[in-house]
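job 3f2a | input accepted
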Amino acid sequence: MGEKAKVVDPGDVAWENVPAGSFPYRLRQMPGPLNALGLVKFNLPNRFNVYLHDTPNRGLFARAKRAFSAGCVRIQKPEEFAVYLLKGDERWPRARIAEAMASGREQAVRVPAPIPIHLLYWTAWVDRQGSVVFRPDVYQIDSLTAMALEAPYQWVVELKPPPDNSLPKDVIAVP
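job 3f2a | predicted structure (175 res):
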């Protein structure tokens, strides 16, 4: 929340005087078992601010319709995922991870080594029995994909030097 932030009792605020166009407060739910993000949140570096998180509502995993978040992803086994992410750090055995998750205190923990996370959004796939399964396109991406596939084909070539600039001396990179 920042060093200069202060907690305000909602009962002390004259809400009728708070301007709708410039809300001066940051609302934040404290960590704990009733937090909408559950006991743990996994931040991912990405421009969409998508992250993975636990949930206090375990029953949602039993439903066929699972789009209950605003673009973030609920994890069914967050403790196991944390154990996997921290497996190279002897300071974080399973017992300490479980203790931290149950503590009700916020803590930031860095993973020992970054791992790639690939999120896939599928509205149709073939299951293990060979049947095609369809789900609603809750983000309306299928229509955009269809438009792109029907559009005239264009070649797009983008040349970029490798991040470590390890090109041979006789190759010129044009950004």
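job 3f2a | The chain has a mean pLDDT of 84.
job 3f2a | closed
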